[in-house]
Design brief:
This protein has about 190 residues and is of the alpha+beta class. The protein is built from six helices and seven strands; from the N terminus they run E-H-H-H-E-E-E-H-E-H-E-E-H. The protein has a seven-stranded mixed beta sheet with strand order 1-2-3-4-5-7-6, with helices on both faces.
Length: about 190
């Protein structure tokens, strides 16, 4: 998938060094619920065993094709999906390397993934969440039009071995259509 500045593509083992470059930063993973990577081998293992979902993509700049972040639609029944319970629902997750924060890259990637979810995959709902204190993720969700749903206390964050406060938002196909097309869905 392509946007004005980005390519969203499948992860490759050759991305391990680029992944490590950004995922080893302690400001990136822990706020999203996973520990900073400790080696290129760990990043390679994550590519093989975590970023292997059907809808898991590397976020790459068009100019060089190097992975600078990750975005995924976790389909019903897939690992890491805590929110979507129906086959026409999914949960989105993402992160971006710190040098690219504040450049509008993540909203650009999220909007393309929403288009993909609703137009290509036939989803009716896309769920998304963030942990308390992750103001950057919260802001991306607001910019993209997600509607806040609820707050949960004592949410397990297994990779960090702790509990946190979580916040959940939702984008429906109908809401997305109004935001993108500025019109309601056509009658069936």
């Amino acid at each position: 998938m392509k946007t004005e500045r980005l390519i969203l593509r499948r992860w490759e083992e050759s991305d391990a060094e680029d992944l490590y470059k950004y995922a080893s930063d302690p400001d990136v993973g822990p706020i999203a619920g996973w520990p900073a990577h400790r080696s290129i081998d760990e990043s390679r293992d994550v590519i093989k065993n975590v970023f292997n979902g059907k809808e898991a993509y590397a976020i790459c700049l068009k100019e060089d094709g190097k992975a600078i972040g990750a975005i995924e639609l976790k389909l019903n029944g897939s690992r890491g999906n805590d929110l979507a319970n129906e086959d026409d629902e999914c949960e989105m997750g993402y992160w971006l390397g710190k040098p690219f924060w504040g450049c509008g890259i993540m909203p650009e990637a999220v909007k393309e993934m929403l288009r993909h979810a609703f137009e290509d995959l036939g989803m009716q709902k896309v769920w998304i969440g963030y942990y308390e204190g992750n103001t950057k993720s919260k802001r991306v969700q607001e910019k993209c039009g997600f509607k806040y749903q609820w707050r949960s206390e004592n949410v397990d964050v297994p990779l960090m071995h702790e509990k946190r406060t979580g916040h959940v938002s939702l984008m429906t196909k109908e809401d997305w259509h109004i935001i993108i097309k500025h019109a309601p869905l056509p009658e069936k």
